[in-house]
Amino acid sequence: MKILLINGPNLQLLGVREPGIYGADTLPAIVAHLRETAAELGCELIDFQSNHEGDIIDLIGSAKEKGVDGIVMNPAAYTHTSVAIRDALAAVALPAVEVHLSNIHAREEFRSHSLTAPKCIGVVAGFGADSYEWALRALVAHLNRKPVLV
C-alpha cells in the first residue's frame, strides 16, 4: 500500500513558525515518525512539501499513475483558498484525509472553512503532530476496511 503525504505552504518552517500554535516539532521529525508508523502498518510513505499550489495539484493529478492508494494532506493555507486543489482531489477520487496541527475551528473565522475537506473521507485537526499519525492510521484502516478503534 502506498500513501502520499502532502504538506502545503510554510510547513517547512515548522518548529520555528509560531510554536505556540503549531508546536515545536519540525516537518522532518513529523515525517520520520510517520515513516515508522507507515512501516508498522505495512505501507510505503511518499512525502512531499511545496509552497507552490501548481506543484501540489500536479502531484495529486499523477497520484494514481504512481500507484498511490490514498492521501494524507495538510493543505495549510490552501485549505481555505484552493478550489484547484479541491478539484484535483475530486478528479483523482482517491481516499484522502485532511490534517491540521491546530484546531482550525478555534482560530480566526476564515480558517474554519475548508474548501478541500468535502473531497476527503475525514479530517483530523487540533492534536499537534499526533494529528498526522491519527490521520495516517485512519486512512490505512479505511483502505483495509478495518475499524479504527481497537
UniProtKB/TrEMBL annotation:
The record marks 17 as: Transition state stabilizer. It catalyses: 3-dehydroquinate = 3-dehydroshikimate + H2O. InterPro entries: DHquinase_II (IPR001874), DHquinase_II_CS (IPR018509), DHquinase_II_sf (IPR036441). CDD domains: DHQase_II. Pathway: Metabolic intermediate biosynthesis; chorismate biosynthesis; chorismate from D-erythrose 4-phosphate and phosphoenolpyruvate: step 3/7. The active site is at residues 22, 100. Keywords: Amino-acid biosynthesis, Aromatic amino acid biosynthesis, Lyase. The keyword Transmembrane helix does not apply. Its EC number is 4.2.1.10. One of its GO terms (molecular function) is 3-dehydroquinate dehydratase activity. Belongs to the type-II 3-dehydroquinase family. Catalyzes a trans-dehydration via an enolate intermediate. This is 3-dehydroquinate dehydratase. It comes from Victivallis vadensis.
